[in-house]
Amino acid sequence: MKPVVVGISGASGSILARQTVDALLEREVPTVVVCSNDAKLVWQEEMDEPFGHYLSAWREDPNFTDYGIHEMSAPIASGTHPTAGMVIVPCSMTSVASLANGIANNLLLRAADVCLKERRNLVMVPRETPLHAIHLENLTRLARMGVVIMPPEPPFYLRPQGIDDVVSFFVGRILVALGLEDTLPEKYRYQGRTDRGTPH
Fold first, then answer.
1. Angle at CA 32, nearest 5°, toward 42 and 87?
2. pLDDT tens digit string along 139-151?
3. Cβ distance 86 to 7 under 8 Å?
4. Where are the beta strands (DSSP E) in the chain?
5. What are the domain boundaries of the chain?
6. Which of 49, 120, 156, 184 is the most exposed place for a label (fewest CB within 10 A)?
């Protein structure tokens, strides 16, 4: 199985990154992680444990590999190294702007740029709202290049019971977008309303 690259950039949403990596490893998908320095700072703010704690645990899995943000000699920096695609979760607006304008000056951006030029799956989970016009223009440019843009919006129509439901739903969406799953688990699929009442 080809590896999936997970880029973690400096934006809010560390829990999404953690559960995406966990879900890939649970499915025995070879997983390569690149985390920016800013992402580690955000992780420290949002999570109960520092990034290094999770990294140490992931490294015990034979399907896991990680590289530093400036390791430009890593295999994923080359289009000749096969991958199943990449997700940037969460994705900062700096990363969005860089990729939209062809700037790839670190390994996370370079790996994503490789996906663009090789026509591989690339999924982006942009940071929280609001977004101004330049953000939207950059995201639109990337969408036109085939990038799947997935804002982490809660599925209100499924009536989630808490943050765990929202995160699990969204990670399932990422796996589908990467082509690793055909569909979401049944509990996260809309089944239609059964309480429509009497029509007027």
1. 65
2. 999 999 999 999 9
3. yes
4. 4-8, 31-35, 64-67, 85-91, 122-126, 148-149
5. 4-185
6. 156
